[in-house]
Amino acid sequence: MRNIKLIIEYDGKGFNGWQKQPNKPNIQGEIENAIKRVTGEDVELYASGRTDAGVHALGQTANFKTNSNIPIEKMCLAINSGLKKSIVVKSATEVEEDFHCRYNCKGKKYRYIINNSANGSAIYRGLEYHIPVKLDVEKMKEGAKYFIGKHDFKAFKSSGTSSKSSVREIYTAEVIEDGERIKIELTGSGFLYNMVRIISGTLVDVGLRKNKASRYKKYYRRKRQNKSRKNLTCTWFIFGRSVLLNHKLVKYSYNVLDTYKFMT
Hints:
Blueprint: E1 2-10, H1 27-39, E2 46-47, E3 56-66, H2 72-80, E4 87-95, E5 105-115, E6 129-130, H3 137-145, E7 149-152, E8 167-178, E9 181-188, H4 195-207, H5 225-232, E10 238-246, E11 253-263
Parallel strand pairs: 3-10, 5-6, 5-11
Antiparallel strand pairs: 1-3, 1-4, 2-3, 5-9, 7-8, 8-9, 10-11
């Protein structure tokens, strides 16, 4: 049996996220149906990570197994012929049978973009969050350092997560000033539900000088989520219409989630 790895680009608008859900448009189901049309097989498509409703991707990675003899160089064309214009398979590669996009991923990187100009952007308004008040980037950089390392991030997640443990490790945390835009980038072993979004909102509060960066360190030691969240509530809870990017995703690699900001 062949194991095929796909790099996929999609416009998440109009979809209820990656994961298959009954009676709701989803990316996974669309691609699986397209594969069935060309192979005649029911396949299970495994993604490196599930994106939420409205989230875009430039390099989502997924794999499936098939007995089809379609040449690998024609696989993209074959699958794309059955897809909507908002989903495109960019590449297809035959990989080892035990390769799994989720379990072989060693880390994920999220990038949130804030437009910190006075007037914002007309063209990119749907891909970044506009904060006209000048942010203190140096303070934000200082604050980002407190998130590096292995901590209990229970105070930095939303309810609804199915994870048994709230301990996660963040390898790098950076705040990058790029002209009128500010990028918040975090790389880690994995993230809890809305964890990166809450951290980003927390750093915005630091940039607005509403909170001191050092005060958040103590929340790693807290055991009760409700008490912790009450004390660290951030003004800016940023949620995703994300763009999922991808570095050279081989067996041991990083996924890069380039996530642009919106507010609830």
